[in-house]
Amino acid sequence: MVTESQYPPVDIPEVDFWGFLFERDIPFPQDKVIYVNPETSRQHTFLDVKNTSIGFGHALETQWNWKKGDVLVTFAPNCIDTPALNLGTLWATGVVSPANPAYSAAELAFQLKDSESKAILTMPALLGTAFEAAKIAGIPRDRILVMGDEKCMEAQHFTDFVRKAGHVPKVRRRIQLPSDLAYIPYSSGTTGLPKGVCLTQENMSANLLQMEVTQSELLWDGGNNGEGDSILAVLPFYHVYGIAVLVHHPVFAGIKAIVLPKFALDVWCQAVQDHKITYSYVVPPILLGLSKAPIVDNYDLSSIKVFVSAAAPLTKDIVNAVWNRLKIPVKQAYGLTETSPGTHVQRTEDWQKAIGSVGRLLPNQTAKFVSEAGEDLPVGSTGEFWVKGPNIFAGYWKNPSATANCMSSDGYFKTGDIGYQDQDGNFYITDRLKELIKYKGFQVAPAELEGLLVGSDMVADACVVGIYDESQATELPLAFVVKTEKVKNVADEKLEKEICQWVTSKVANHKRLRGGIRFVDEIPKSAAGKILRRLLRDRIKEETANKRVKSKL
């Protein structure tokens, strides 16, 4: 059956995203501080973000003759400059393609070439990788800019780039259509290399308004210090979850964000205590640490009113453990890169009523669960989750066949995730049709690692699956490997170490083979040559179950 959102529809203005954020009646003072670097105390107000975005966009147009649809790849850890420079690219009618700063030069070069990027925005510490990737992709070195507090001799800082552009216009000369592209984040596919996900101006505006119905409790004023709520911006700014709730929402709602470049539990706790953080977006591994790590007792986290967890499955046990220890509610949310990202967010008042649920369908969407035979399923029945709405992406970049495969004839996006809904309209996501592995919220494509592995002279064939590690509350990539004749007589333990070290030298941190390697005589495949991944995954589950039985005897 088709389910419509229980929320009233929201009005989505027919404007581009820059106009949506800045050309409106701003409900808070424009000198409201939005972004803070706690290490240097550098900060940006709402007006700073707006003016910097205009200046950067103007510089792109005048210095580099930026055209509509030109792509800028951002390659950096979290930085308070990122929001303004992303939005400045949109002001210049460009497109932002965020890249993981842990990427190797080869991985970054792939995204640069595939997205047809014209320039790179990074930080001084990453220039070595950026220069190497740019050379591979054919991007001139002078098209690499840096941001952040530190300047360097090797590349131009964006502030100098803006200064050289001279007088900034007061009126935008070019305005985009709601259907024009805004972002091309890359989502790892289950087959082949990562795919660019085309997110439009309307996608961005719509999803902010959709998610706002469960975030209206966040206030820009009031509270103990009169400055309103504050959030801790530690989720990656290159991940669509971080883009939505940390790059865009603070500007939209006037919420102060304390920006951390990366997560470390002690630094996170210290920032919460020092800045009286009231609202925290997290992923399950952070909650796992908060529920178990002894160091948490050294800090006062009582200012936090609620956690919002997304990007990976969250167990009831972790939710209950966080509540029992900290007495802080945990709301769950759900979405995908292709849905901009949010389709569901629990209401705070519902968090304890339906633990394990991702909440109710957000406004302006319809959804259904579909059987393997393609039939709509009733409430309570498990099937693949399909969804339709203004937040659904425009398709995969330069990949019409992949786009066609994931869209139904009546316009639904086939998420590849399995679940059901209950009688109260709460949705549950229980499993995944897709083969993607999610390591701490980051996507790992088995096919990408398999392609790398078989390129080694130690590996004849390979299959990669995800195994769930309860101790870390995340999936880990594990490889089944067939040895080549060259290393057939090498001891398994020694060869496993060598292959894992080799892979580590080639990939980003989240793609490492943390689940280890199992050596097999052959990889099971269908008559058509497709890897029967399920058989190997079932083998791991059986081995795990047997170990549990033995441990009880």
Overall geometry: globular
CATH topology value of the domain at 437-552: GMP Synthetase, Chain A, domain 3
Residues in helix, %: 25-40%
Low-pLDDT ranges: none
User: Quick check: average pLDDT?
Assistant: 94
| Global structural class | alpha/beta
Class of the domain at 437-552, according to the CATH hierarchy? Alpha Beta
User: Whole-Å distance between the termini?
Assistant: 46 Å
Tally the beta strands: 28
**CATH homologous superfamily assignment of the domain at 437-552:** ANL, C-terminal domain
Largest sheet features: 5 strands, antiparallel
Task: Strand order, main sheet: write it out.
Answer: 1-19-20-22-23
Query: What is the architecture of the domain at 437-552 at the second tier of CATH?
Result: 2-Layer Sandwich
Question: Treating each run of at least 4 consecutive H or I residues as one helix, how many helices?
Answer: 15
Q: Using the CA coordinates, give the radius of gyration.
A: 23 Å
Proportion of strand residues: 15-25%
